[in-house]
Amino acid sequence: QRDCYSYHALNDQWNTLPPMPTARRSHSSIYHNHNLYVVGCYDGSPLNSVEALDMRNLQWNHLPPLPREVSSAYLAIVLDNLFVLGGFCGCWVTDVYEFDSTQQTWRQRSPMPERCEEGAAVSFNDHVYIVGGEDRSCMRFNPRNNTW
């Protein structure tokens, strides 16, 4: 599907947004600085596409693709950079990538110490936390020194 919607809690209303350029399922998304980032997906096989909807002008932008295909990845923002952690690519992976929003480039970071299937990610105090999953794990990543 390419459908995209926004929800306004104050008036309890869904609004239709411009359709995504790439049809997606099992993708990941995160909102930061007026942009809705949509990363990876599964379309018979994982994809590496990354797109961002600028919510100020409702225009989709293609960003440089991820270095590898992935679906169901965890996303977090630290210091204005986008982190893509883990996900599925034929099997659950531990890869970590950082998108430098200023340079518009990707770089690989230290992998997660273990796989985390069906968990969640959150950023707090310039760290990324991966929690839950089938193994009920809890991991913390420090992007400043690239350590878990």
From TrEMBL:
Q: Do you know which Gene3D superfamilies this protein is assigned to?
A: Kelch-type beta propeller (2.120.10.80)
State the superkingdom.
Eukaryota
Q: Which SUPFAM superfamilies match?
A: Kelch motif
What SMART domains does this protein's entry cite?
Kelch
| UniProt-listed PANTHER family | KELCH REPEAT SUPERFAMILY PROTEIN, OS02G0202900 PROTEIN
Q: Which InterPro entries match?
A: Kelch-typ_b-propeller, Kelch_1
Does the keyword Repeat belong to this entry?
yes
Q: Which organism is the protein's source?
A: Capitella teleta
Q: What Pfam families does the database record attribute to this sequence? A: Kelch_KLHDC2_KLHL20_DRC7 (PF24681)
This chain's protein is named BACK domain-containing protein
Keywords assigned by UniProt? Kelch repeat, Repeat
